[in-house]
Amino acid sequence: MKPPLSLRSGIPLTVRVPLVVVLLMVVISIGVSQLVLWRLVETQERQLGDLANAYLDGLESSLVDPVLRRDSWEVFDILDRARAVYAAVRPIETTVADANGLVLASSEPRSAPIGSTLPPSTASRTMIVSERDGVAIADRSLMVEGRQIGRINTRIDISPMLAERAEVTWYLVISNAVLTIALTALGWFTVRRMVAPMNVLLRHVSAAADGSVEPIPETQIRSQSPEWSRLFQRYNRMANALSERELLLGRVAEEERLAGLGKLASSVAHEINNPLGGILNAVDTIRVHGDNPKVRAGAVELVDRGLRGMRDIVRSILNSYKEDRPARGLTHADFDDLLTLITPEVRRKQIALEWTIDIPEGMTVSALGIRQAALNLLLNACKATPRGSKLGFSAGIVGRALELEISDAGPGLATDVAEILTGDEVSAQGVATSGLGLWVTRRIVKDLGGSVVVGKSKHGGAKLRVIVPLVESVSREVADVA
Amino acid sequence: MLIGSQADGAWLCGFPYVQHRAQLELLAVPVWRGQPLYQSYLISTAGRGATSLDQLRGDIHAFSDPDSNSGYLVTAAELARSEERPDQFFKQSFFTYSHFNVVRAVASGLAQSGSVDGYVYEVLKETNPELTGATEIVRPSEWFGFPPIVAPTSALAGEKSAVLRQALLDMHTSPAGRLVLDMLRLDKFESEPPALFASIEDNWDRVRELS
Known about the structure:
The complex is a heterodimer of chains A (482) and B (211). By secondary structure, chain A is an alpha+beta fold. Among the domains of chain A are: 12-169, Beta-Lactamase, CATH 3.30.450; 326-482, Heat Shock Protein 90 (2-Layer Sandwich). Chain A is built from 13 helices and twelve strands. In chain A, a hairpin with a 2-residue loop joins strand 4 (135-144) and strand 5. Chain A is rod-shaped. Chain B is α+β, with helices and mostly antiparallel strands. Chain B has two domains: 10-35 and 146-210, no CATH class; 38-144, Periplasmic binding protein-like II (D-Maltodextrin-Binding Protein, domain 2). Chain B contains nine helices and nine strands. Chain B has helices at residues 14-19, 69-81, 86-89, 99-108, 118-127, 129-133, 159-169, 175-183, 198-210, and strands spanning 10-11, 24-31, 37-45, 60-63, 92-95, 113-117, 135-145, 149-152, 188-190. In chain B, the strands form two sheets. Chain B has a five-stranded mixed sheet with strand order 5-4-6-3-7, with helices on both faces. Chain B has a four-stranded antiparallel sheet with strand order 1-8-2-9, covered by helices on one side. The radius of gyration of chain B is 18 Å and the shape is globular. The chains are: A alpha+beta (482), B alpha+beta (211).
């Protein structure tokens, strides 16, 4: 039966293989020990049976006459002398009874006196081995011409045999234990050595998954076997390719940002052009009718409004694209800047913008990151929204997070494009389809520890919810984003 | 063998000498501990504490030999005085055909008591104290004539009997003879009259009367 996956996957290979070795060795040891002991017992009992038979054969031939004569002394004398002759058999007590089971004599007369009754032999076998008492009991009928004239019953000391058996058992246990420990250690060292390169590879792959792609040092590659060495070299090629890709993506993102800035500048130039024309007209008016205080005041007011509008636009652009400013928290002014930046595009496409900001001042979340992410998503939404349709933007606090919601009336997001915003991995095809804007947005949100949820908007298009947790201090978060 | 003239002399128990006195000539009698006499011992397993034959009733009893005075006749005669026979008095009795084996039988527990030659028992106490240590003397009997050296009467006229008698009687005077006597734990040999064995004959008569 397979162990549960969690158990199997939770135990390292360096432990699992020695454990398997231990289990195998224990099973093999028990099996071999049982076989050896079974053979030993069989051999010992066969030898014991042979010895007992030789002993009883010798007694039988001597005892027939005295048993027939019921000569207790001669029976005793034979048993007593046999004790020395058959010392190797180690008879503890041998008793001879007549045909009625009455004792004629015993080598131990005090335990089996003359005339006492010898218990009948109940076993079908001629010899019974009692390991608990350390004795073997053999029984032999004395027969003369097919008639039973008596019985010989002997108890043989088998304690040396049992001691030898116990000694063999201990030898087996100790030798098997030593062998098991040695093989386990060998298995552990071998597996540890085998999986050491795998651990190196695992460390580097794990580090790469966390964003730190480091090649395996050459010294480590050279110390490995040819197979591992080739694998490490291939990993290094892959790591280098990943690093280059990251670098390339960073450059492309920067270029994308600058391209966006160019587009925005073009749009803003158009926006500035109108107040600029008004300002020039007002300057001409002042030059011609400057003596008239009323006309002059009206013209100055016009110049002032035009210049303020231009100042707001310039400031918003500076706030969005100037990188070397100090870190700060998100404020209402940032949303005002966002509104300023997208207003030209909104006006151009005659979009009805629903703008709702419900946040406190000075939130502990990176202003730069949120501005860039929100601007990207709003520009994308403007692009997707048909002329004259609705576009919604709201910002609020949910729990301990800032939540932005952008809903448009466009065709919605394709799955691979949506995955750019929501998934961990980005397909090259998705990036090619949507441009780098969404990919940059995902990176910003991910760096801020947040997430993006894609849904369907009430206006018929896509609804994007950006959730970014508030942090204790914005400066560190901003540093991370940078 | 003596009666059949197959032997010129033998060391014989007093009982068979009495039984065949007409065919046997008394050559010499051993002197043991200063007198030509010995006793029969009733023995039992050590620690039993019996002091009389009556206390041995119902025992399994070991006799030495049916032709032995000390190993059978003395005990049988004592029972005959009470008009009892060994097979009635004892639960079971058997012959071991040796005084040494009587001591073995009692020491091992095969027999609870036995009738044994006092001289043999005393020598065994010196040579095999472990064996006799497992037994104890219930009581020694009266004194009887020590088992004599005898020759068949048919050989009386012969030179052999005279030479043998003289050799026995002079044994204690030579170093070699002294060595033999020391080994046998005897003092010497001397001439004794057949009357020395009269008490054995009385016992035999008593046993015969009962049977």
